[in-house]
Amino acid sequence: MLRIPTSLSSRRNNDPSGLPQTLVLPNRRDPRPEPTSQALNRALVQALCERMDFDAIPLIRYEANQVVIRSGQIVKRLPILISGRIDAVVQSGAGERADVVPIWFERGEIVMLSYLFSEQPGHVDMVAAEVSDVRWIDTSDIEELIAHDPAFAVLLVRFLSQRLREVQRRERAWVERGVPLRVAAALVRMTHDLSTVGGEWILNATHEHIAHCAGVSRPKASVALKKLEREGHIRLGRGRVYVQRLDALKSVLA
Length: 254
Description:
This protein is of the alpha+beta class. It has helices at 37-51, 139-148, 150-176, 179-190, 207-214, 218-230, 246-253, and strands at 2-6, 21-25, 60-62, 67-69, 77-83, 85-92, 97-106, 125-128, 132-138, 201-203, 234-237, 240-243. The longest helix has 27 residues, at 150-176.
């Protein structure tokens, strides 16, 4: 195992003679599985706790469905999620409906570290999926820590590298899926947080919108939807899709 020591002390006590912090890096021959990006994100939060006075940062509560970071704004602060869950949400169809994308953050994570070192506005809404408590930290404070604390910088690079590998694996698996599976996955995502009406999940979505969510052409999406209808999973209506057998639809994806 490789260890990278740093003599920088915690900002909490501001004591230059404090014990050195160490970061353990896996040896390339280490047979153990690599940590997930979620685990590395939480390790970053723990490192921040050791270097900053978190008790001095106010705790802010967001109700379910309340926007935490709005698309189009330049992000100067990042929320650290103390409790709850935050989803990434994309507004499509000129803002007529919102789609939850497969990116979310849970307790103990920093939300959207990709906004560091950027003056570009965000492209998604970050929305509280449930009642969530956060502490906001300025991006400039994190960037300063990266510049002066090698161990923290290495931990951030590990997180970003692992997140990139996970995204690449997810994209590769997505591309390899057949069109019907991609359409089915899109329908399952769109039922998120919906309640049943008469035993059905009602999606106000056109074939074109579903095709956009599934990443396929409209004609291919229509063929896949009709196949799912013949199999009894859904019922098609004008501008609507009625999901009748959600569990069976999920089993198709397993």
